[in-house]
Amino acid sequence: MTKQRKIAYLLNAVGVVVIFALLMALFAAGVFGTSTTYIQGICTTACYTVIMVASLNLVVGFMGEFSLGHAGFVSVGAYVSAIVSGALAGKGLSDLGLFLVAILAGGLAAGIMGVLVGIPALRLRGDYLAIVTMAFAEIIRVCFCNFSITGGGKTLSGILKLSTFPRAFWVMVVCVTFMYMFVRSKFGRTVQAIREDYIAASAAGINVTFYKVLTFAVSSFFAGIGGAIYAHYMTAMIPTNFNFNYSAELLSEVIIGGTGSLTGSIIGAVFLSALPEAMRQFATYRMLCYSVVLVLVMLFRPGGIFGRWEFSLTRVLGRLTHRRETAKKGA
Amino acid sequence: MAATKTPVLRCQHLGIQFGGLKAVDDFNLEIGESELVGLIGPNGAGKTTVFNLITGVYKPTEGSFYLNGVQMNGKKTHKIVHAGIARTFQNIRLFKKMTVIDNVKAAMLRELHYGMPQAILRTPKFWREEQAITERAKQLLAVVHLQGKENLEADNLPYGEQRRLEIARALATDMKLLLLDEPAAGMNPTETEELLEIIDYIRDEFKISVLLIEHDMSLVMKICERIQVLDFGTTIAAGTPEEVANSPKVIEAYLGKDNEVVEGI
User: Fold this and answer.
1) Which residues of chain A carry a pLDDT beneath 50?
2) Which CATH number goes with the domain that contains A205?
3) Homologous superfamily assigned to B1-84+175-265
4) Interface test with A, best of B52, B120, B163 (most A CBs within 10 A)
5) What domain range includes position A129?
6) What pLDDT was estimated at residue B135?
7) Is B97 in Cβ contact with A196 (below 8 Å)?
8) Which end of chain B has fewer CB within 10 Å, C or N?
């Protein structure tokens, strides 16, 4: 069992490296010709969208609470990291160091914000919580529109272009691994118990408020990291980027991918961030398409495309070895 | 019961008022070690409210209760569970979309001391502790005769097994006092029989006390050492099953004034 698990971990790592090498090789070989930079950009976008969507899935899928304010946390991460990297630029840090410090600062700021919002807001449930989180995101947006340090209502530009594709990719890998480990531990189990029945959860000795706030903070932390990569990729941003539409977009990606499946979030986010680029000429109809897809998913797969299904190499390996064993027995 | 020993649970003048309604009034009860006490009464008598008071779902407006001599009122539910009171619910409340074993493991949170860094890095401590609770969860599932069903979704269990899983989950909290809210409701006689065996077994094996709400009179009379009867929030009788069965007040509460049928209970 443990040996199998080790093999699975190793294979997962190898798989990730292979995907990365493949993409890098494609870029280096110039397969995409003149649009290489453009494709690379889409891949970077996909990476930070994956982080944002997966982190939102912690709250929506695993904790079972509706949050309509994820863009708020993303923007906190984006602005704080932009300010930090701006302040530390030229202080002797390497680009990579600066990038890591900036995204960590963004993540931490968003995480702290998650705790602050979570403590009062998570007393509420369902629709009420959704309204409060939405209001929070709006408040944040209005604040950023008025603080001079965030550029006021104008564009905050001149952010260093630190988010290259390799960096974004590896940060994504680390973040998703963290979230996966979080979900597959006592934390995930506890939070799922709270989702299923919070009264029974407290009767099982679970401190419901604590674990809800903790999960909310972890989710915000990763949202902040996603935002930080975003900021250093876009190099310019305006608070209205993080409006309700953005939260709704992230939420619909979670729901389409599958609430409670990180695999679904990854595939959903990659697909949905590549799709609008591929169909640029229909950009006006993007939100329309989203709504239609969302309605269709809700009708035919209420749990999202992947539901709660999670890709697991251990399981695949187990099944393969099992099949081989039964085949041997049969022979 | 040895009077000198501190009772496991002691309720003193416990009461709660919702607006003008006294749902429970002047509730007194002592449960000794390994004792099995029944709490009965007609519908709406306040039995489940007593459970909700003892488990911290409601805060008592009067009186107080003690677990092993420690005052517990005003504490939050999870704190009370940690202190040693666990319950099951009248309308089953399982973590439906989780596996049977995860239902039990969710209640073992306190046995896991690893922090988030250890969980994320999957340190040996993580594996060791997870392994330990998996083992214990399996043992507890065997106690309630659910071995071999560890990886089923809790929602897919038949009714009687769901009730037993709730008991296993309560056991997982490592409690001293188990509150069972109508554990036999909706069970057929065979299932009830099995349940009784389980209750007997866990009482001996884990040295716990049980407070039981039940409507099935034959069951209550058979297994409870003492019975307390509630009606309209007040205690109308308390004592051994025989005493209670013959108490005119109880007969009146259950059957009205005419007491001819009582012998049949």
Assistant:
1) 331
2) 1.10.3470
3) P-loop containing nucleotide triphosphate hydrolases (3.40.50.300)
4) B120
5) 2-248
6) 95
7) yes
8) N
Average pLDDT for B46-73 = 91
**Pick from A182, A192, A205: which is nearest to B109 by CB?**
A205
Of B58, B59, B55, B99, residue with least CA distance to B79: B55
- The CA distance from B117 to B121, in Å, is 6
| B123 chain-A contacts, CB cut-off 8 A | none
Q: How high is the pLDDT of residue A276?
A: 74
Domain count, chain A: 1
Given an 8 Å threshold on Cβ–Cβ distance, is A189 in contact with B89? no
Coil, helix or strand for B238? strand
Nearest CA in chain B to A187: B116
Cβ–Cβ contact A182 with B under 8 A: yes
- Provide the β-strand partners of residue B234: B231
pLDDT band at B2 (very low <50, low <70, confident <90, very high): very low
Burial class (CB in 10 A: 0-12, 13-18, 19+), A278: exposed
Position B249 confidence tier, pLDDT thresholds 50, 70, 90: confident
- Give the mean pLDDT of chain B: 89
Burial class for A100, CB neighbours closer than 10 Å (0-12, 13-18, 19+): middle
Residue A325 lies in a domain: no
A174 touches chain B (CB under 8 A): no
Residue A269 lies in a domain: no
The answer as to whether A320 is a domain residue is no
pLDDT category, B261, cuts 50, 70, 90?
Answer: low
Residues in chain A: 331
Residues B92-100 have a mean pLDDT of 94
